[in-house]
Design goal:
methylmalonate-semialdehyde dehydrogenase (acylating, NAD) activity, MeMal-semiAld_DH, binds nicotinamide-adenine-dinucleotide, 497 residues, NAD, methylmalonate-semialdehyde dehydrogenase (CoA acylating), Aldehyde Dehydrogenase, Chain A, domain 2, 6-stranded mixed beta sheet, alpha/beta, single chain, 7-stranded mixed beta sheet
Length: 497
């Protein structure tokens, strides 16, 4: 029998009463592995009200106790790391090593959440006027929510609810309806870690359920990660309803290849960062910018890329898994065909790819384009598949101009042996996350995930200190005490608790 994914409301896993369900499929086989409910209006209301009620007590739980929940959670996640990775592989098709990375990058954020007290310290200035002191304190907002995409079912929910909750908020998570199973396991482990009932709610659904969150007066902040049109919609609607919003969107990440770079490193890193996870990473390299003579390396790049073939999650030889759905594959194939029709040269064409014994999988082979121009769809749009577009320029200045003219600004990297070129690049490039000889420069959680321009709508970014600011409010106190109020005579009691 097909598993019905429950909701998680008020600390209880419960079956939805909805009549609307979405099938969850294994993208390597197209087998239906579960069905996920689109929560009813009543269930949404119940989850939000529960979060609001729990907030009243959770905000006053000692910060060290809130941190201890995260310590226990981190421990449990590590203990169940491999099991979570396998579950995640089943619903995303990710190969095991990638799935493990997904879980691990999430665990690292939970570690930061356990360090919440040092990120919630206010400031003090004594004697702002004679005998008057001013100090600030950081307080939680209330009920926050998170809407997450399919491509990192562990890491991205873990970017959100542990920090928000450690900061004293309660949280409503709406995971991607394509990959709800990992999120439910994350919730189970959170409960086992001793999180009080009602601190985290998990609801399921699509636009309608997201709209309820965006418009509900109780919700104070919205964290979103997903595609560009939805991010724009979430930012606009959420802010119209007076919510704080951070919306992380799509990307087109360029890697610049300088003539003094180590050729073997360039090729290795380009291959891994473009086709890894079937290109379904918001930080995947999707454009290689060859400077000067390095365009001669494209032939060797093509040879190495061609060796990368997709396969099942537990196949050691597979370089990556399938695309998430038939719809996603059809979209990528259509973009590849459009690229050819618009005159780009398809050096490697992955559209006819098959994997033995798995004819129903959404497979796509590595695909490489040269001769593209900036007005072609394969350059303008995020493809989100194992597709690399090669551009050629004569100088570093031209490479910088090309990238700064692209609307996205999530990640980029430069491969070079020249410190001055690297310094110029990091300074002038209008992209929020820069790698120097590092292809996918995702910051660790003591920093923040800092996409720019068309890849991000909002002000404060995910995890790190910025996320703590996002999920909190600053209160400033100015205080004055009069000497006359100091009691005279001895006070012999010591009251400590
Ligand atoms: P998506 O935008 O289709 O879905 C994301 C979430 O939004 C899901 O929970 C979905 O149910 C919900 N949603 C979908 N349509 C909606 C609508 N019309 N109104 C309200 N909610 C809606 O994204 P996806 O396909 O799941 O994820 C892939 C995208 O996410 C890619 O574009 C990728 O670049 C992006 N992404 C960005 C980052 C980043 O940090 N910038 C990280 C990971 C993924």
């Amino acid at each position: 029998m097909i598993q019905s994914v429950p909701l998680f409301i008020g600390g209880e896993f419960c079956q939805s009463q909805t009549t609307e369900w979405v099938e969850v499929t294994n993208p390597a086989t197209s087998e239906v592995i579960a069905k996920v409910p689109c929560a009813t209006e009543q269930e949404m209301e119940h989850a939000i009200k529960n979060a609001a009620e729990t907030f009243k007590s959770w905000k006053d739980v000692a910060i060290s106790e809130r941190a201890r929940v995260m310590l226990r959670y981190q421990h449990l996640l590590k203990e169940h790391h491999d099991e979570l990775a396998e579950l995640l592989s089943k619903e995303t098709g990710k190969i095991l090593i990638d799935a493990k990375g997904d879980v691990w990058r999430g665990i690292e954020v939970v570690e930061q959440a356990a360090n919440i007290a040092s990120n919630m310290m206010g400031e003090t200035v004594e004697n702002v006027a004679t005998d008057i002191d001013s100090y600030s304190m950081i307080q939680p907002l209330g009920v926050c929510c998170g809407i997450t995409p399919f491509n990192f079912p562990a890491m991205i929910p873990l970017w959100m609810f542990p920090l928000a909750i450690a900061a004293g908020n309660t949280f409503v998570l709406k995971p991607s309806e394509q990959v709800p199973l990992t999120a439910m396991r994350l919730a189970e482990l959170f409960e086992q870690a001793g999180a009080p009932k009602g601190v985290l709610q998990v609801v399921h659904g699509r636009k309608e359920q997201v709209d309820t969150l965006l418009k509900h007066p109780v919700i104070r902040a919205v964290s979103f990660v997903g595609s560009v049109p939805v991010a724009q919609y979430i930012y606009k609607t959420g802010t119209d309803y007076n919510k704080r919003v951070q919306a992380f969107a799509g990307a087109k990440n360029h890697m610049v290849v300088m003539p003094d770079a180590n050729k073997a490193q360039v090729i290795n890193n380009l291959v891994g960062s473009s086709v890894g996870a079937a290109g379904q990473r918001c930080m995947a390299i999707s454009v290689a910018v060859f400077v000067g003579s390095t365009k001669e390396w494209i032939e060797d790049l093509k040879t190495e890329m061609a060796k990368m073939q997709p396969g099942a999650w537990n196949d050691d030889k597979a370089a990556y898994g399938p695309l998430i759905s038939r719809e996603a594959k059809n979209r990528v194939v259509a973009l590849i065909e459009e690229g050819k029709a618009q005159g780009a040269v398809c050096q490697l064409d992955g559209t006819q790819c098959n994997v033995e014994g798995m004819p129903q999988g959404n497979w796509l082979g590595p695909t490489l384009f040269t001769g593209a121009t900036t007005d072609m769809s394969i350059y303008e749009q995020e493809i989100f598949g194992p597709v690399l577009v090669c551009m050629e320029v004569d100088t570093l200045d031209e490479a910088i101009e090309l990238i700064n003219n692209n609307p996205y600004g999530n990640g980029t990297s430069i491969f070079t042996a020249n410190g001055a070129a690297a310094r110029k690049y990091q300074h002038e490039i209008q992209v929020g996350q820069v790698g120097i000889n590092v292809p996918i420069p995702v910051p660790l959680p003591f920093f923040s995930f800092t996409g720019w321009r068309g890849s991000f709508y909002g002000d404060l970014h995910a995890y790190g200190k910025q996320a703590v600011r996002f999920y909190t409010e600053t209160k400033t106190v100015t205080s004055r005490w009069f000497d006359d109020d100091i009691p005279t005579g001895p006070n012999l009691t010591i009251q400590l608790r």
